[in-house]
Design brief:
Zinc Finger, Delta Prime, domain 3, five-stranded parallel β-sheet, 320 residues, 3 domains
Length: 320
């Protein structure tokens, strides 16, 4: 099964394959069709089409000569100033092949570049603008220094909605002869949370077991906490039964191999369905954030989750 929404074989105008980013894609397509693009910065969450769009731009511009005119660097692997001074400059100073007068350098995960490398890059972008264009992708544009941002046209991407994920799932199901019903699409969307790459990976893993994709099979692959199980834990806690809440939580984590962070996310979603006052829900959300921070910093997940359940018990007793 294809593991990307971009396929290797060239077809005319592949911009239609990027879903859920209509405004950004239309702007990029218009620039590409004019055979001239500025330096561009693609900013947004992971798995929503930034790298794919960069590849489409390159293939649309250079057609069969795209490999000779394209350099891709992953800034999280090669993030120092030497990369900018050597690899980037050596590629940027040579003339392009074909009708387009510039080459393209794609810096993936550019927010991982060191500040020194970004300072070196700002001059390179100016000095070689006649022979080279930069496309940079990042998760957090705030980590890109202002001088670079001012040299780029910025395109902001968002997490995909359910209807967008569904388009990709249907396209893959038709090509791969998979059987998928609406309930499965719902489970897939909940599992990927708007990340198309994660959705495709889950779908590929599931299809390797059976071409008939069921919600139960997807749930097995995802290994996410079931909302109803977490609701039982929280109902025990709100009712003041700390012992049963703790035992049920331990049962969920051990039997289903759920991480502490996944449990925290599930709890955070279920807080707003609890039969308590809105002000208490706000306080419990704050407690959830504190527990999540401690888990990320290395504290024992089960101890932190027990402390969080204690807060729910106190809230249920009116003492929080």
């Amino acid at each position: 099964m294809a593991s990307s929404i971009w396929t290797e074989k060239y077809r005319p105008s592949k911009f239609f394959e990027i879903v859920g980013q209509d405004n950004s894609v239309k702007r990029v397509e218009a620039l590409t069709n004019s055979l001239n693009i500025p330096h561009m910065l693609f900013a947004g969450p992971a798995g929503i089409g930034k790298s794919t769009l960069a590849l489409i731009v390159v293939k649309e511009l250079y057609k069969e000569n795209w490999k000779e005119n394209y350099l891709e660097l992953n800034a999280s692997d090669e993030r120092g100033i030497n990369v900018v001074r050597e690899k980037v400059k050596n590629f940027a100073r040579t003339k392009s092949i074909g009708n387009v007068p510039f080459k393209i350098i794609f810096l993936d995960e550019a927010d991982a570049l060191t500040p020194e490398a970004q300072q070196a890059l700002r001059r390179t972008m100016e000095n070689y603008s006649a022979t080279c264009r930069f496309i940079m992708s990042c998760n957090y544009s705030s980590k890109i220094i202002d001088p670079i941002q001012s040299r780029c046209a910025i395109f902001r991407f968002k997490l995909l909605e359910k209807k967008d994920i569904e388009k990709v799932i249907i396209r893959i199901a038709e090509n791969e002869k998979l059987i998928i019903n609406p309930e499965t699409v719902e489970v897939l969307y909940e599992g990927c949370e708007g990340d198309c790459r994660r959705c495709i990976n889950i779908l590929q893993s599931t299809a390797s077991i059976s071409p008939s994709i069921t919600p139960e099979l997807v749930a097995t692959i995802i290994s996410n906490t079931k909302p109803r199980d977490i609701r039982v834990v929280l109902d025990y806690a709100i009712a003041g039964d700390f012992v049963n809440a703790k035992e049920k939580l331990l049962d969920i984590m051990l039997k289903e191999s759920i991480s502490g962070q996944d449990v925290i996310k599930a709890i955070q979603k279920e807080i707003w369905n609890l039969p308590v006052e809105p002000t208490i829900k706000v306080k419990l959300t704050e407690k959830t954030g504190e527990a999540e921070f401690r888990i990320v910093e290395g504290s024992d997940p089960f101890i932190q989750l027990q402390a969080l359940l204690a807060s729910f018990v106190l809230a249920g007793l009116g003492k929080e």
